[in-house]
Each structure stands twice: as C-alpha cells, then as structure tokens.
Amino acid sequence: MVKTADELALMRASGRLLAQVFEMLDTLELAGMSTLAINDLVERYITHDLSARPASKGQYGFAYVLNSSINQVVCHGVPSAEDVVKNGDIVNLDITLEKNGFIADSSKTYMVGEVSPGAKRLVRVTQEAMWKGIKQVRPGARLGDVGAAIEKHAKANGYSVVRDYCGHGIGREMHEAPDVMHFGRPGTGELLREGMTFTIEPMINQGTRKVSTSDDGWTVMTDDGKLSAQFEHTVAVTRTGVEVLTLRTGEKVG
Description:
Helix content is about 25%, strand content about 25%. By secondary structure, it is α+β, with helices and mostly antiparallel strands. The chain has one domain: Creatine Amidinohydrolase. Strands 1-3-4 form a 3-stranded antiparallel β-sheet, with helices on both faces. Helix 3 (about 115-135) runs antiparallel to helix 4.
C-alpha cells in the first residue's frame, strides 16, 4: 500500500503515459464514433505509441481496454460497435495503463457537441467534487475527509453520490487497499500516510444515487434514467500534501 521512492517513480511514469492517452482523446471529434472504435484506437495508442499495456484488458474477464459510459450509464460501460456517441451526449472514458509493473487509472467525462445546460452543470460539479476530495489529501488526514468534501459539494448542488462503487488503492495491482469512499464524515476512516497511492473517482447523479447492473453483468445505470458523470485521478500522498500522478497538460490541482 505504501510505496517506496523507486515505486513512486515508476507509478509517476505510468501516470504520465496515461495522461497522454487522454490528451490524444481530447483532440478527437467523438460524435459519430462507436465506443468500440474508441476502445480500439486507445488500445493501439497504448500498445504501439506508448509501448505500454492496457491494464483493464483481461482483468476480471473484461475483454476491452476501457469503460465507456454514456449519459445514464454510471460506470463499467462495455464498448460496442452499436453504441455510437452522438451530439449532446456525455460519455465517461475510464482507462488504465501499466508500464514496468505499475498501474495508473484515470477517467474523464467528455461533453460531445452541443450539450444541454443541465448536463454541462453536472459534469462541471462532478469535476469540482473530485478536486474537492483531492485537496483533502495529506499526511495525517483521513479518508473520511476526502469523502465528506466530495459529498458536501455534490449535495450542495442538488446531486447524489453513488455509494455502490468507490476509489481504491493502486500500484502493482489495479485494486489494492484501501477502499476510498466518496461520502463520509470528517475525521473518520483510514489515516493517510506518505507514500500511499489510490484513486479518487466520484460518480455523481442528477437524481437518485440508486443504481442497477444490466444483464451483461458489467454496465451500471441510474435507476431513474437520469444522467451520471464521473472523473478520476490516481494520487499519491506526499510529505507535504498530494501529487496527482495522472495530471494532464493544462490541468491544475483544484
């Protein structure tokens, strides 16, 4: 769980590569692309351009390199040739990458073309909520501080926080201890120590926080059919605060 300086250097390298994947996606016109086409493009980029491994492929029997979650899909959307991204959609792309034995994990919700004001607001608040959580990370803080900051911001804006899925420790394995909840009470939960690495990845819904899984065994959707958004970064606890290992060009902490 706590990484050495050498291990952190390797995680930092994986994080930089994963940031490049999203920077590549930022240049694309997603409207009209199927989620399977996006998946295949990302796989080629990771393996050919970055000489790395898409860590999600084969994990838990999953056959693809990313999750593609459109509109009311909360998480774990399965790429498909039939799912074509349309103008007005919001789509979360959740991608993992392994290089030299260490894994980075990140996601971003893209607004495609002309998106409704309600969708834009949800996406903005979800991203803000992630940063509210990240800014709580420092030695001596507790995981409850992270979750409480996220939940407070979401609720203040009239949204709900999905409780069925959470962030997680990460390193040599995609999912390590601890679980990182996106709700909670300040001053509770596991104590943060220098060298810990984990993801913060809130899923924020317009309506109810209740979700259900489709018959494919993967795709998680809002129970009421309203929109959901998500953002995710892999972070490390430093001596003085936090380092975002998957930070993309142009992003600022907070």
